[in-house]
Amino acid sequence: MPKILHRLARSMDELILFSLAWCFVLAAVIASPLFGLSLEIGGFLAGLALSGSFEHVQIATKIKPIRDFFLTIFFVGLGLNIKLDGSVVPFAIFLSMVVVLIKPIIVWLLMRLFGFKQRVAFGTGLMMGQISEFSFIMVGIGARMGFLSSSNVSLVSLVGLITMVVSGYLIIDKEGVFRVLKPVLGFIWKDTSKSDPLPAELSDHIILFGCHRMGRSVMVHLLKSREKILIVDFDPEVVEKLKNEGANVIYADASDTDVYDQLGLSKAKMVISTLKDIKDNLVMLSEINKRKSKVSIVVDAESVEDAVDLYKAGATYVIFPHFVGGLHLGDLVRKGVREKGDFESYRKYQQEVMAGAYA
């Protein structure tokens, strides 16, 4: 399948047409008397086969309007199946509370047992606070085969709607929910795994949040300038690679307020953040300001609106990648760098940084 899709990828229309045809044909075959399964299972298997290709992101993007249309029809049908009577509603509310509360707690406990940090375990558990779409598929199959009554279908449908709505709002404000529940979670299961401590000899250093792509280039440039750096990153692979290179790195999330006590802010001379998430940057600025630090803070922004918010939050300087690129090019022209030979030294230095950043 990946080879076929790769050949068809030269034409987006052919790729999408083939993908849709594949889904409908496989769904029909799976639902035929030969297999006797449902159309839903067939559609799932068709999507599973497409997911192994490099083009699956393009396919998913192009069929998004179709998906949203059928999703609307699905929920309309779901609502039509719900029959609100006195016997169903109380039990549905009880089951919804079990799903929204008990299921995330179980996932949180399992994640903590496997050694994940408090924030990661909580976020994962919160994502599980709803029933799966497969519940609707299984209930539909059971109803068609006569195993489930209409009241059973109504019960599962109502629980699904309630849990999706409630968990959806909780996920939107998961950071706020985590801040409220953090003392309770810490009392139940305290974080014993501390981040790597700040080296005692490290002072007058630069703290770098994020060391992927842009952050990696910044790190290489600072090291060439013989600066002392403390890196904070939340990607285990990046952290492992940096440790193997002998870098001073702490595995931590920028939105984890406890980590700022381990960064030696009183000894640092600058903080640089290449994080793309403005929420993480705002938390970082807030925590540094709470500690009355006078350190300069440089952050990255994706839009003018984000830059305004970051400046209001206390950023010393906000950079835009496209603005910095234009500024650098204008500076080269201002210095008289125009001929091919004039660019040689800049090109050589750029290649050295790129070799260190993307090796």
UniProtKB/TrEMBL annotation:
UniProt topology in membrane: Multi-pass membrane protein
Domain RCK N-terminal: 203-320
Transmembrane segments: 66-82, 88-110, 122-147, 153-172
Superkingdom, taxonomy of origin: Bacteria
Keyword Ribonucleoprotein attached: no
Signal peptide (UniProt feature, chain positions): none
Entry's Gene Ontology cellular component terms: membrane
Record carries keyword Transmembrane: yes
Protein name, per record: RCK N-terminal domain-containing protein
